[in-house]
């Protein structure tokens, strides 16, 4: 019954249902990261900022982007799916990653909103190439158009957990993220020491 209601809502209000679900799942990924990090206090401001970026940009962009891809390359033939995947990973994925790093930094009021982007974008994009092409292949082949943004939101729940970890503690690589899953406290301590070492080296170069 509940599934039927959600499906009907997605059909009748596709933009609202898709974008809202996408934003909620993305924010949920940040909450999972914070729980795994075993923080003393939940950083609700960071979750709010992630939700704002996800709803205002990611959800809306993906909703219209997926429709534009389908209009330009309609159908589920191998050639059409390949073209959609190629464009998605060469244009949409780098753009979405860039907006996440710079958007959250802007909402936090950081002096240099491109700092995280410069340090972690390329690693993050490479990690995404091990995940998103497979998820989007399933999306393009199995999902009807009105459900594709919602399906991306479900996939983005795990991806957002990774992104939030990478931005706050990691370096954008899958290896560090996996180490965090296996032993959060040890990994966070190692990453703190690495950041302090980089700051000391930067200060020495400037002096």
Automatic annotation (TrEMBL):
Annotated compartments: Membrane
InterPro entries: Mpv17_PMP22 (IPR007248)
One term under GO cellular component: membrane
Membrane topology: Multi-pass membrane protein
GO BP, one annotated term: mitochondrial ribosome assembly
PANTHER family in the record: MPV17-LIKE PROTEIN, PEROXISOMAL MEMBRANE PROTEIN 2, PXMP2 MPV17
Similarity section: Belongs to the peroxisomal membrane protein PXMP2/4 family.
Name assigned to this protein: MPV17 mitochondrial membrane protein like
């Amino acid at each position: 019954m509940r599934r039927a209601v959600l499906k009907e809502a997605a059909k009748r209000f596709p933009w609202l249902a898709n974008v809202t679900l996408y934003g909620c799942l993305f924010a949920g990924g940040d909450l999972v990261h914070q729980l795994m990090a075993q923080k003393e206090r939940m950083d609700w401001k960071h979750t709010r900022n992630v939700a704002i970026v996800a709803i205002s940009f990611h959800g809306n962009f993906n909703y219209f982007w997926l429709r534009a891809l389908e209009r330009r390359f309609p159908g589920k033939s191998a050639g059409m799916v390949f073209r959609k995947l190629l464009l998605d990973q060469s244009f949409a994925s780098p753009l979405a990653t860039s907006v996440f790093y710079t958007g959250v930094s802007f909402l936090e009021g950081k002096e240099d909103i491109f700092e995280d982007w410069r340090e972690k974008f390329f690693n993050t994009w490479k990690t995404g190439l091990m995940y998103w092409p497979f998820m989007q292949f399933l999306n393009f082949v199995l999902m009807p158009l009105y459900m594709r943004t919602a399906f991306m939101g479900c996939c983005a729940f795990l991806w957002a957990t990774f992104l939030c970890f990478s931005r706050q503690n990691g370096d954008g690589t899958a290896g560090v993220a996996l180490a965090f899953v296996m032993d959060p406290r040890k990994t966070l301590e190692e990453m703190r020491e690495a950041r302090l070492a980089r700051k000391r080296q930067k200060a020495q170069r400037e002096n």
